[in-house]
Amino acid sequence: LAGAGYFREISFNLGGTLARWLDKNAHQVYERFLTSEGSHYQTYGVSNGLAQPVHHTILPLARRRDKICQVRWGIASFTHRFGHPPKGMWLPEMAVDLETLMVLAAQGIRFTVLSDEQVRGDLKAGAGPYRVRLPGKQEMVIFVRDRALSNALSFGMPDPAHVDDWLRDQVEWRCHKGGLILVATDGETFGHHCPQGVEVLGRILSAEEDHGYTLTTLERYLCEHPPQTEVEAIENSAWSCTHNLDRWVVGCDCTSGDSRWKGALRRAMDNLACDLDGVYVQEAQRLRVDPWPLRDDYIAVVLEKTDGPAFMMEHGLDRLPWLDQERLLWLLEAQFYRQRMYASCTFFFDDLDRHEPRYAIANALRALALVRYATGDDLTAGFRRDLRVAVSGRTGRTGADMFDELIR
Prior knowledge:
- The chain folds into 2 domains: 6-240, Alpha-Beta Barrel (7-stranded beta/alpha barrel), CATH 3.20.110.10; 247-407, no CATH class.
- A hairpin with a 3-residue loop joins strand 5 and strand 6 (138-145).
- It is built from 19 helices and 8 strands.
- By secondary structure, it is an alpha/beta fold.
């Protein structure tokens, strides 16, 4: 899609992990994202890019301070790459609760996207935009994805030769209703899951006059059509789970097999996160540092906008002995890996013995090592003990087995 130049014409989000990988390993593709967004911004005065919480965390399952961290890191990553702050933010798996929307609003985010089954109210205005009232006189603008149309494209994509037939069957009658139609799907649909996807999307983007629609992007449309109708976001919902987010907690019918490993792994990670936070907070308090705003700002080091010593100086911490500064930087880096172990894919699939849970455990190990370097506290025994309870239904391997394998 980037090579074809299609990101100039559609709204998109580029996650922080993928952006860093592209920047280092496929820089020409990375630059195409930047130039596509820049071209749209120059033409219309608004962005077609949306930010994303950096580690694709299921935000309703996170503590408030971790929600704030992920959102601030996502905003900082977007601003660093595109040169201006975002107005929209894509929620990982569209997982939502009111606290998440309140955090977005407090951080200056104007809008997000939900699927139609996640919204309660009159949706006669199609994709909206709609207004969601929040406590404290805040509000969030919601665009509503057409689930049926989006799924028809994602899971029933036509051959390139039959795109016009598909548009006649799926799109033209929707156009007669007026208003905005929003198709929202995973980017990997085009080319990865569906080899013909890039060619199909190209025809959709060029067939406006033939089928009675006009292309737009979300922020551009919002500027022209402010929300008139109020709706309610259904809490603890997501576009990829209809069971109150159980897919990422204890398991549900969204995946097959024995899903008890999910609850066990999440308990192990939550216990470790509490232990890691405890060490970090204790050290920060000893040094008379407010731990959570400092962690929020640490994304500047991750993005390589600054280095550790400069970061310490910018926050007035260069007054500390260098050993204390170094210890604090190690603990901040541990917090980065502690956040990264909660990526949504850790719990998305049907079995523990896959690379996604293994990656989460690897991030936990890195956080453990950094804490041990910084303070001498060894938290591994408790984490490994908790991991023994997480068992693969397919292979019988435990999280502790994977832990030991990664250490070796």
